[in-house]
TrEMBL record:
It comes from the Bacteria. This is Large-conductance mechanosensitive channel. It is found in: Cell inner membrane; Cell membrane. InterPro entries: Mechanosensitive_channel_CS (IPR019823), MS_channel (IPR001185), MSC/AndL (IPR037673), MscL_channel (IPR036019). The lineage of its organism: Bacteria, Pseudomonadati, Pseudomonadota, Gammaproteobacteria, Aeromonadales. The gene is mscL. It comes from Aeromonas popoffii. PROSITE patterns: MSCL (PS01327).
Length: 135
């Protein structure tokens, strides 16, 4: 089988397509969370902390000189990125928890119940007959 044929077979599998859809949705979800954190969560936190704009929080290592921009460590944006990550991680955790709960419920309903009372009684009668035949 040629390399191209193998790749076509691989790409045509359903789980590869599912993964691609998941990545696209995940990227869009990441943008939504970034906007939520930057535009909804951080402004009130900044207001509570005395009107701080987190995107402006930087440590300047070297001031701008002419056309050369300043060299800064943008720790405010880093804090926003950490909050983005925590929200996304929590959302993924909750989603996986819901999926695992559903799987557990399906497994519980799928497991066959023990023998019925009639089956237990028949088993006892069979065992008694076997023991009497062996005498």
């Amino acid at each position: 089988m040629s390399l191209i044929q193998e790749f076509k077979a691989f790409a045509a599998r359903g789980n590869v397509i599912d993964m691609a859809v998941g990545i696209i949705i995940g990227a869009a979800f990441g943008k939504i969370v970034s906007s939520f954190v930057g535009d909804v969560i951080m402004p009130p936190i900044g207001l509570v902390l005395g009107g701080v704009d987190f995107s402006d929080l930087v440590v300047t290592l070297k001031d701008a000189e002419g056309a050369t921009p300043a060299v800064v460590i943008a720790y405010g944006r880093f804090i926003q990125t950490i909050i983005d990550f925590l929200i996304i991680a929590f959302a993924i955790f909750m989603g996986l928890k819901a999926i695992n709960t559903l799987k557990k419920k399906q497994e519980e309903t799928a497991t066959p119940a023990g023998p019925t009372k009639d089956q237990e009684l028949l088993s006892e009668i069979r065992d008694l007959l076997k023991s009497q035949q062996g005498k």
